[in-house]
Amino acid sequence: MSTRAENSIEDQSLALRSDLHIARKVWHTVTGLVGLSIYNQLQLSSNEMGKYLLILAVVALALELLRLKVPRINEVFLIFMKPFVRESERNSLTGFPFYALGISLSLLMFEEKIAVLSALFLIFSDPISSLFGILYGKDKIIGNKSLQGAIAGFVVCYSLTFLYGSYFYRPGVDLILFSFIAGVIGSLSELCSVIVDDNLAIPVLSGLGLTLINYIIPIF
């Protein structure tokens, strides 16, 4: 790596994980909603969409490895993606390959309605949990995860499950109970991101948990 390239890349000031980083959170949500919109508009099967996203994940990973290996490509990448990239991702993988991989595995592994719901958990719960954790997260649970962020995640996942489930099942005690357990599952899956990237952990672990409770309380 040339000294000029090193200096140019290092001059790019990037957000820290502890920053609010609103642009990244909006990007996270919009990207997911656009993907779901394409899925709906093209009327693809969950298996087809899962395969396309798996290909996208592999391509994204290859491009990430390339930009990390070639300083000039990394420099251009950081210029254009500066509003959405964290300092920790300057010389390491961003979350996008894991984002595509997580949703693709969910679509390939789980029943369609559950896979879509787990994707919604990732799209909405992840950024909102992070936002509340940064703003109000005084009580740390594990790593940088806070009780306040976990509660926000629970509320979001509970609400998403209840609203989404109401389209397929008449609201009642069963749906409320299912939604409550789903909220706990979504919140816990987000906490697991201290071990595995949250873009992978949330849709896969949530999908697994939702599948298990759906056997007991059949909503989807």
TrEMBL record:
Q: What domain of life does the UniProt record list for this protein's source?
A: Bacteria
Span-the-membrane segments of this chain are: 91-110, 116-137, 149-169, 175-193, 200-217
GO BP: any one term? phosphatidic acid biosynthetic process
What is a single molecular function from GO for this protein?
ATP-dependent diacylglycerol kinase activity
The record's listing under Pfam families reads: CTP_transf_1
What InterPro entries does this protein's entry cite?
Dgk1-like (IPR037997)
Q: Which UniProt keywords apply?
A: Membrane, Transmembrane, Transmembrane helix
Spell out the PANTHER family in the cross-references: CTP-DEPENDENT DIACYLGLYCEROL KINASE 1 (PTHR31303)
Q: What is this protein called?
A: Phosphatidate cytidylyltransferase
Q: Which organism is it from?
A: Halobacteriovorax marinus
Its lineage reads: Bacteria, Pseudomonadati, Bdellovibrionota, Bacteriovoracia, Bacteriovoracales
